[in-house]
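dude i think i finally got it to work??
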Amino acid sequence: MTRITAIVCVRNGAVRLPRALASIRAQTRPPDEVLVVDGQSSDGTGAIAAGWGARVVMQEGEGLADARNLGVARAHGDMLAFLDHDDRWMPDKLARQAAALDRMAGPAYAIAHLRFVTDAADPLPVPGPRGVPRLGRTPGTLLVHRAILDRVGPFAAEFGMGCDMDWFARAASEPSVTDPQVLLQKTLRADALSADPARNRAAAFAVVARRLAERRRG
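look at this
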């Protein structure tokens, strides 16, 4: 039987982590394992995660890529899913994607659509038309066979916050399926790295430059 591990990467997320873990617990196809990678939090995050029944792994390194790679290395599942501590899955996220991957001929990955939301106490402008779903090439929508992760390789720390974009660029030729439904609510926060347009643009340019250089060498 296929085992699914849900990986949550978090640092000082005591306020929002319970909401993310509640969305994991509410899955109609629950994961077989919930693994929380704690980036040296100082606010009791690890104890909160353990109280929800998650297996907690302390991150000795730094950065999002390192946290994601540590989660992959410590996970026991055949399929892996990722959730940032301030985001939420829809209840049928894992069920729909696991069923879609079971219909594939071999190892593959699944993504879905997302909707941006904001915290009432921390409003930010939502990019594009408010509330409109959009395709989510982000780990929060991802369910992936471990074999695909092995082929594509780890998240690249040198890209900083662009490590997710780089991974999806490298995975573009792998078998995949896209769910038309919104399966992730992604929270916009003023203190999040993703809310910094300049850093987002710099990360995107770095990933594109690397891919172009590799094509020239190829």
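Residues 197-217 form the longest helix (21 residues).
im so relieved honestly
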